[in-house]
């Protein structure tokens, strides 16, 4: 019995930690629905006129029928309870812009944004780990100074301006990459499995479609990555510098371990927790903040959908986007907390 209890005890702190985080996430999700509902109802303008147009909205009978059908004549608390009840059944309402269920619209937009954001964060993290570690090891030298200037430029250049310049130079002038959309008009979309075109083409064994989707993905990913690389590189440099001054790294060097062994087994592992936090925040920002880049490159993702919903005062669409963005951040924070608990056992007991 003692052996069994001892065997199970290391897993219990992690399980308890996950249960606490899941409970917190559920409460935060309820808060997200409340904030989304309140902010959406505070948007100025007349949703009836936005949905029906000036002509039909001026007809009292048509206007009254629309209000009753959507529960707009009920008090705000009742509308919120109705909204929660619909959410439990997976009903986010019908978009006033597209005429389709918001769930169906988001099912098409979210995978496009996920594909863009995942490619950008993977590229940014790979480049930043190399550049940030190199800058830390070359602290105060020419390499460090050059990288600090380059990352400052990456942080300073407005993303929307860079997207316009990249579109003009590489598509309109040089023609080396496709300019807009996820695939060329002559290419048939892949059978939907994940919604990520590059992945679905690979699963379908279509190399032509995969290369075409990858080519369309290249330019917007590079534009999004520039700012993220600048942010992560500077943070990796700072985190690595802090770890390089610790006793256990100096002890590893004194043992005669090779430079790469020290970096991979000691330095990056020790610097991983703060880096992981920034990566989670950057990934959430990429998923929820690609409106301008998607507009420039005609990328049919969450950013383009939210822009069209806000422009047309599409309240169901706006509420759907707000809820999705909130869920994105909750899920990312939960995943980051999970990695924290795996990498640092002390977190499980906090």
User: Strand count, sense and closure of the main sheet?
Assistant: none
Instruction: Compute the CA-based radius of gyration.
Output: 25 Å
> Beta fraction of the residues?
under 5%
Outline the low-pLDDT stretches: 1-11
Q: Residue share in helices?
A: over 70%
> What's the tally of helices?
17
How does the overall form come out from the CA principal axes?
Answer: globular
Report the mean per-residue pLDDT as an integer.
82
The CATH architecture of the largest domain can be given as Orthogonal Bundle
- Head-to-tail CA distance between termini: 27 Å
Element order, helices and strands?
Answer: HHHHHHHHHHHHHHHHH
**What is the CATH C level class of the largest domain, in words?**
Mainly Alpha
Spell out the CATH superfamily of the largest domain. Answer: MetI-like
Number of domains: 2
Number of strands: 0
InterPro entries: BPD_transp_1_N, MetI-like, MetI-like_sf
Pfam families: BPD_transp_1, BPD_transp_1_N
Family: Belongs to the binding-protein-dependent transport system permease family.
Transmembrane segments: 21-39, 116-137, 149-171, 213-232, 275-297, 317-343
